[in-house]
């Protein structure tokens, strides 16, 4: 029984399937994910946290003040921010 308007003829049988494709992780990727999650939780437990809003604000301030450099590398950006 369908509780929504449809253009299917009366009596049409429809196969219903749950839409849960899961993910595309293989065993190795899933193990890597779990290792990363464990390491992240250890950082939280040990107080090794950074305020994302503060980091983004500081980064945007640095980027806004810096001249446009189309070929700037990640190392160049780190050199002009507080990150060593």
- Strand % is under 5%
Using the CA coordinates, give the radius of gyration. Answer: 25 Å
Round the mean pLDDT to the nearest integer and report it.
83
Principal-axes shape call:
elongated
How far apart the termini lie comes to 64 Å
* Beta-strand segment tally: 0
Secondary-structure element order, N to C: HHH
Spans where pLDDT lies below 50 across 5 or more residues: none
- The chain-level structural class is mainly alpha
DSSP summary: helix tally? 3
User: What level of helicity do the residues show?
Assistant: 40-55%
Biggest pleated-sheet summary:
none
What would you say this structure looks like, in words?
- With 84 residues, the protein is mainly alpha-helical.
- 46% of the residues lie in helices and 0% in strands.
- The chain has three helices and no strands.
- The protein is elongated.
- The termini are far apart.
- 0% of the residues are buried.
- The model has no long low-confidence stretch (mean pLDDT 83).
Write the layout of secondary structure elements.
Blueprint lengths: L26 H19 L6 H14 L8 H6 L5
Sum this structure up briefly.
This protein has helices at residues 27-45, 52-65, 74-79. It is mainly alpha-helical and 84 residues long.
Task: Write a concise keyword list for the protein shown above.
84 residues, mainly alpha, single chain
